[in-house]
């Protein structure tokens, strides 16, 4: 099939829908799913010409890219896979894309496990770790610590509005970690019992700022005030190349229904008494300035946030153009 319209495989659209609706979520998991979707697009392509194949692949990447704006692991994954797409025939393009996606996914897994080993070195036997949201990179550190015989306990913040803390609590309990679940507002009280705050990241900016689930910055400020170190577990795929040239990271604003149910909205509107409608805002992420972060743990070692730009230059050079814009 070869019309002027790009052909995006339904599996790609399904993955994009799942990412947008957060049925697939977490920065690393999103990157993995996006790479897998591009491989499926390539495998199932019946493009008649190399140009049509590339057009369809770029359209697929764009559809995946437009799902959520904050986690840079998504565009970084798409860039990686598309850069590996090469060949003069459709079949060569298909196999190079699939191979590139497979390599990416394998590297992602390896990076997380390496990062876990490095992060685990910061934890001591008997430590109590406070978590926010659900981060597979953060959990990799705890898992590696447990594997090397370091026992830890966890205080898990619920993480409103979507309560991803419940996923963290479940995973930690499966690993045998004693867990105390708290509401977000109780965090400062429990910092007195905490040895480390451990969070993940959706993006890391060139100045070392950490973009992570809403509530991270308040937690980090309170942790600093209490003298509790803040450790951010983030594979290098979370490094945001555009921030090297001064761009800021877009913060996703999600639907009001995550905060206020339809019934609650009706009840409030029913009591409005001529007042304008209640405004609800629901930012999914916030920015923690580098001065509140003690270490960013990556698969390439741990870094003080201020020095992360050196690693970014080494990994990305100057090229951050989007291959799907071509
Ligand atoms: O890559 P990993 O470490 O799994 O997750 C990183 C971050 O992704 C999540 O975002 P969301 O729940 O998708 O909005 C959280 O903010 C979490 O800290």
From TrEMBL:
GO BP term, example: L-methionine salvage from methylthioadenosine
Catalytic reaction list: alpha-D-ribose 1,5-bisphosphate = D-ribulose 1,5-bisphosphate
Molecular functions (GO terms): ribose 1,5-bisphosphate isomerase activity; S-methyl-5-thioribose-1-phosphate isomerase activity; translation initiation factor activity
Keywords annotated in UniProt: Carbohydrate metabolism, Initiation factor, Isomerase, Protein biosynthesis
Catalytic residues as annotated in Swiss-Prot or TrEMBL: 133 (proton acceptor), 202 (proton donor)
Positions annotated to bind substrate: 25-28, 68, 212-213, 238
Gene3D superfamilies in the record: translation initiation factor eif-2b, domain 1 (1.20.120.420), Translation initiation factor eif-2b, domain 2 (3.40.50.10470)
Enzyme Commission number: 5.3.1.29
Family the UniProt entry places it in: Belongs to the eIF-2B alpha/beta/delta subunits family. R15P isomerase subfamily.
Note, other: Reaction proceeds via a cis-phosphoenolate intermediate.
Xref: PANTHER family: METHYLTHIORIBOSE-1-PHOSPHATE ISOMERASE, RIBOSE 1,5-BISPHOSPHATE ISOMERASE
NCBIfam families: eIF-2B_rel, ribulose_e2b2
Free-text function comment from the UniProt entry: Catalyzes the isomerization of ribose 1,5-bisphosphate (R15P) to ribulose 1,5-bisphosphate (RuBP).
Protein name (Swiss-Prot/TrEMBL): Ribose 1,5-bisphosphate isomerase
Taxonomic lineage of the native organism: Archaea, Methanobacteriati, Methanobacteriota, Stenosarchaea group, Halobacteria
